[in-house]
Amino acid sequence: MTDRYAVVGNPVAHSKSPAIHARFARETGQDMSYVAVFAALDGFEAEVARFRGEGGCGMNVTLPFKHRAFALCNTLSERAAHARAVNTLVLGPDAIRGDNTDGVGLVRDLTVNLGHALEGRRVLLMGAGGASYGVAGPLLDGHPAELVIANRTVSKAVELCEHFRRIHTHAAPLAAAGYEALGGRAFDLVINATSASLVGDMPVLPPTLFAPGAFAYDMVYGRVTPFMAFAVDAGVDCADGLGMLVEQAAESFHVWRGVRPDTQSVIAQLRAS
Ligand code: NAP
Which residues, at least 6 apart from 153, have a Cβ–Cβ distance to it below 8 Å? Predict the structure, then answer.
């Protein structure tokens, strides 16, 4: 029987996940289907229960439900527990297990696909929402020289840093900041994990932000964001979040099926289209 998977979100019609997983399944010979499921804002838990009741094996969870997915799970992977957010559900007969593949997806895109090592580099992560919680741990695991978390609401960046200092013994070079405090600082890698790009906006940043040879990364994909334009104006190489999207999907696929699909061809195909 064909195993059933889905992505649940609101909105979700734009999601590229069904196309990505269909291609992974084809290329690895897995007998599975993958659809998009819309959940009303007050209907996330009911949609998961319905899909599970109909025999669904797993779900990806996207905005705005990653925190509610975290609360829904009976068991969690370590990385989901650290992130306090879940983007991958394994729907078992007796329990729902939660995982978070966003962080490994970002780090694989940065280090493997784009060739930017983290070790010894000064990294700025902008935003302190769900995406930043998902990637902060895996970024720290890459042993950067420092990881600065900047956020519009500084108290949330402080909270994120306190959380990761408690669970990451190697989190010494972790600091919180407001954007106005970044003047005079320079970073080798600047990652935009704010949702400002979705509305054509960006944080106010000093022009001195990028160190020589720096790289800029925006988690949003499918458009040239104001942050990417800012980086290009500064003569800095940049990438959008399409590779992260495909890599986090590949990690979810591996969690569910035990098989690691090739990602390069999928990224290339999505870029071409
Ligand atoms: P979230 O939990 O809603 O957090 C949004 C963050 O953006 C907060 O830190 C917020 O700051 C900040 N922000 C929003 N508007 C801003 C503005 N105009 N100026 C400065 N900061 C602003 O969202 P999320 O789940 O973390 O997702 C963040 C982004 O990452 C989204 O665009 C999402 O699509 C993207 N993402 C991409 C992938 C991928 O695979 N490529 C995966 C996950 C997420 P405050 O705290 O001050 O409100």
Answer: 128
Mutate to test the pocket of ligand 1, among 194, 251, 271 (most ligand atoms within 8 A of CB): 194
Q: Parallel, antiparallel, or unpaired: how do β-strands 58-61 and 88-91 relate?
A: antiparallel
Cα dihedral sign, 113-118-119-120 = positive
Using one digit for the tens of pLDDT, what is the confidence trace for 194-232? 999 999 999 999 989 999 999 999 999 999 999 999 999
Pair 179, 202: CB distance under 8 Å: no
What number is the average pLDDT over the span 72-83?
A: 97
Are the beta carbons of 125 and 149 closer than 8 angstroms? yes
Is any atom of ligand 1 closer than 6 Å to the C-beta of 220? yes
pLDDT, average across residues 66-90: 97
pLDDT in tens, 93-120: 999 999 999 999 999 999 999 999 999 9
Looking only at the bridges linking them, the beta strands covering 96-99 and 88-91 are antiparallel
User: Is 142 close to ligand 1, i.e. is its CB under 6 Å away?
Assistant: no
Amino acid at 150: A
Tell me which long-range contacts 111-115 makes (C-beta under 8 A, separation of at least 24): 111/142, 113/243, 113/247, 113/263, 113/264, 113/267, 114/215, 114/217, 114/239, 114/243
User: Which pLDDT score, from 0 to 100, does residue 273 have?
Assistant: 86
Strand 32-38 vs strand 3-9: parallel, antiparallel, or unpaired? parallel
- Please answer whether residues 59 and 7 qualify as being in contact, where contact means their C-beta atoms are separated by less than 8 angstroms: yes
Query: Cβ(25)–Cβ(65) under 8 Å?
Result: no
